[in-house]
Amino acid sequence: MQRYRCPSCDQEIFFRNTVCLACGSQLLFDPDKGFSDLAEAGHPCVNRPQINCNWSADEAGVLCLSCRHTTVVPDLSVPANIERWERIETAKRPLILMLHRLGLPLADRAGLSAPRFELKGETGDATAPRVLTGHAGGTITLNIAEADDAERERIRAEMNEPYRTLTGHLRHEVAHHYWDVLTDARPDRLDRLRAIFGDDRLDYGAALQAHYAEGAPPGWAGSHISAYATAHPWEDFAETWAHVFHLLDGLETAQAFGLIEPQDLPEGLEHLVREPMARLAGAWVELTIALNAVNEAMGHETFYPFVLAPPVVAKQEAIRSLIVEANSADDAAAPPSASALPQ
What we know:
By secondary structure, the protein is α/β, with parallel strands linked by helices.
């Protein structure tokens, strides 16, 4: 994430701010132009009053780029759901911005927003189907219980996971969408991914059932970013994709705060993604060792409790290369991109 300053008084502001706390200016964010003063430019997203969306819309009374991707909102007659919706959208906006900056398609071939998000909650009816977070055909369903810190921590402990966040969920689920989008009509890409992650034609339901019954195989950390990544090639891809996004966003943020020397890596997400993953992973490991130590000194949980073994870095490189390739001008088979990386 980049750092931002108030367009009116030049004080530092944060990505989620709707108002500058120094001068009181109402803020509006444009994915291409950054922050402006609401009184001087653009139209606010129609969701601004309800969930404090600070993004601009193309015209008055419509949704912004990020909110357009949510096609189902939770039942707002339940008061707590408004806060849950706001938390999820607050976590989703940085992801949509990142996808936009990386030049990944944010629309399907019909021009409709994709991926689409359906935010649903349990009804309390014991006979009703459970709301499961997952992806199918370009639609990501997210159980809004994930927006409750206590509930998410309960699930994390139950699943024996070292890490569980809304940001991680969103990055993981969009990966399933982009596996489909970026291999559509491109058997060469699909063959490359199968050679690296395994054959996705393996029965998915049976694979998950076996994973939950038996757990990850011994020594999994030498070849996979997480235990769950061993369940099926699709999950290996999605888990690895999420960590590529963690790494890219984390490195850009560290650069913005002066934690990485300018000569060590090119500045900015659009340039970082063009660097070999081995170089990026080296910088990331060095950074996370320091941040892990700082967290330990403060009595907090480990900042980044994962190991980037060489086979994992090789998988990350495959994803990084796929993102850059999908953004290239000669990639005629891909759907229209939302933006273009600088050459």
